[in-house]
Amino acid sequence: MIDISNNIEDDFLVISLDGEVDASSSIHLDKAIDEAVKNNHKKILVDGSKLSYISSAGLGVFMSYIQDFDSQGIKLILFGLSEKVKNVFQILGLDQLLKICESKEEAKQLF
Amino acid sequence: MLLNKHVIRFSVIFGVLSWVLLLVVDLLILFGAINNISVGFQKEISAILLNLFFLSLYTFYTIKVVKAESINFIDLLWRVFVTGLLATIVSFAIRVFYMLLGDTSLAENVFIVNFFYHVNLGLIASFLLSTFIVWKRLILYQKTKALISRWKYFEYAILASIIFNLFGYNLYEDAPFYITLIILLIMGLVLSVNLKWVAYLNFKQKWKSILLITLTLLYLSYFFINLKSYSTEYSRILVTDLVNNLFVLAVFGFTFLYCIFSLLVILFNLPTSSVFEQKLEDVINFQRLSQSIQKGKTEQQVLEILLDSSSGAVLAEDAWIEIQGRDGKKTLLHSEKLDAEAIDEIKDAVKQTRIKNLLETDIYSIGNTNKLTATLKDTKYKSILLIPLIVQNRQVGIMGLLKDVLDGFNKEMTDIINTFANQACISIENFRLLNEAIENERYKEELKIASKVQKSLLPSSLVCNELFDISGFSESADEVGGDYYDTFQINEHKFVMVIGDVSGKGTSAAFNMSQMKGVFYSLVQLDLSPKDFMVHANAALSKCLEKTSFITLSYFVVDTKTRKIQFSRAGHCPTLFFDKSENQSFFLRNNGLGLGILRNDGYENHIQVNNLEYSCEDIIMLYTDGITEAKNEEGEEFGYNRLKEFLDENSHLDPGLIQENLILTLFDFVGGKSTYDDYTALIIKFK
């Protein structure tokens, strides 16, 4: 129930999420991020403007990479999240560990 | 009612009696004729006794042969052969006896001649009638209504012909006698074309039948010649002469005709019998394959049957099957001359042919059966037939049949093997589905147990004192859930309330929840501040949770003496607090990271402690996100606002009633469809 597409813009990797991330589709999200890490992308942007829902399993995927990001010098920024989805990140406290921005331009400037 | 065995007994007694009387009467008539004195017996009495003898024999064999259970044709023919053999041996013995007598006057003695003629008569009649009845059985194999009625006319006509005996007709002089005989023989001729039983003989049985029928023909000829020679040699002195007996002649003629017909038909059927046998075997194999599932055969046995019957059906030189089991394990079955290495070589050879795709890609159905065979190069085999084995719409294996001639597999063979493979695959599919069903049933049972265990992890009673009321509930979408709530009394006036939600759902969430309970009971007794509790819990859970799992938790310490609340929120949805003084509720928002997310040091920087004072009739409502995220039919979430409004409206009620109303409101909102998530709430109302 999720469409994931990768785009390279300059030296950024933009992962666009379209749909819902629940327990079953979180596997695809995990695969996408895993590939990004393995392909040595250091600047990752996650476009969540079409992400309508994320479950705890989806949050778990982001969470599981936080330490990998730190140790490998990777920076991942989420942008374009709807209020609802952003709220889910905030309640769990993930916004303290992952940067969340309004727009892509804003996100790019943070690197 | 007379039982068959009684009838048999009577007919034997009657037969023997009538034969002995016939002998005595005939000898007396002879004695009278020689001495020119009247003995008071007419020839008619002799004829009646002869007829009675025939009828007894007829009854005896009808029951003996027709009622016999076995319809084994060879057994029937064997019966005819043995009867004939016995009759022949006795007849030969009589001949030898005559030869020993030589030219002595004894040999010419009319009484002795007549006595031995009667012995011959008894034996030949037995043989003829037993053969007649056996032929009847063979003709009526696969009977139709028309055939039965035709046979009945014939049988009645033949039986009726014994009446002629009473009038002493002569074959060569009387036209009615003549014409009746010809009519009977024509009827017999028409019936003799019923030879369906021949088709059911296999090759070996056909040879046996030919032998037995040839011998029967010899007997018949011998007996006829024997009777004829008696008739010409002793015509003047024989009281009863069978050559002048219409019944005997008709039976003779019919049995002889049927012998000739069946002999010819069997001979002509010999070359095609192997084809018929093969087809019959195919059908039997097919049945074996389709019944194998009911008979409790294993998958391996089904495959063995498939390999056996397939190589048999196409006369393959060698064959193999390789198949992937449900557990992913490969099984290889092959004929004796093959081994794994040889099979690999053959597969390499197949890769050079037009059917290489059968080995390479996943095939979901067999489309064109023409594209299953190929010619092989560089192996000792010249042609190959490859059949993909498809179970549950997925190719799980392949069967290869090999021949050392070019174009060894025709369309017919391919089709039959395809049918075999399909049937075997259906058996295997059923077998696998059955196993899956059994396994699922077992999982269900285990889930039931897990569910029971998990329910016991949630508190059966909650702490409370006279200064507050409390009520809690938890419902899970699956058999087991990942929501947790608990209470603990630290001292007389200090209480801990906790609610948590484990990420993910189902069994794995349930396991993590039990870890949470362990951590809670280990730490809560230390009377830690909420922040310290969270830091320690995070450290402990970081060690036990899998990489993508985390737990959200709200931890409340309530002091009923000072009427103060201390709480921390680790990523859990914000608690709803109803303030009686303002008569409305609000969410207790603060910062706090879920447990198990940050697994190294530094967690303490991400957790806060908040303090709160409460007054009478204030309410704390702890809940999990299953409530706020419950969706109605339009996909709209229950959300925070509805929850707040709900509490505002129900704040005057006891926690128990608030809980009941909350459940009703939620069910009403989602519109009867089952909830997707687990949902849990813990409601505390202060006095």
From TrEMBL, chain A:
PROSITE patterns on file: STAS
Family, similarity comment: Belongs to the anti-sigma-factor antagonist family.
Protein name stated in the entry: Anti-sigma factor antagonist
InterPro entries documented for this protein: Anti-sigma_ant (IPR003658), STAS_dom (IPR002645), STAS_dom_sf (IPR036513)
Superkingdom field: Bacteria
Domain spans labelled STAS: 2-111
Cross-referenced Gene3D superfamilies: STAS domain
One Pfam entry name: STAS
NCBIfam families listed in its UniProt record: ant_ant_sig
Xref: PANTHER family: ANTI-SIGMA FACTOR ANTAGONIST TM_1081-RELATED-RELATED
TrEMBL record, chain B:
Taxonomy, superkingdom: Bacteria
Keywords for this protein: Hydrolase, Membrane, Transmembrane, Transmembrane helix
Limits of the PPM-type phosphatase domain: 465-686
Membrane-spanning residues: 12-33, 45-64, 76-98, 110-135, 156-172, 178-198, 210-227, 247-270
InterPro entries documented for this protein: Bact_Sigma-Reg, GAF-like_dom_sf, PPM-type-like_dom_sf, PPM-type_phosphatase-like_dom
SMART domains: PP2C_SIG (SM00331)
Protein name: SpoIIE family protein phosphatase
Organism of provenance: Splendidivirga corallicola
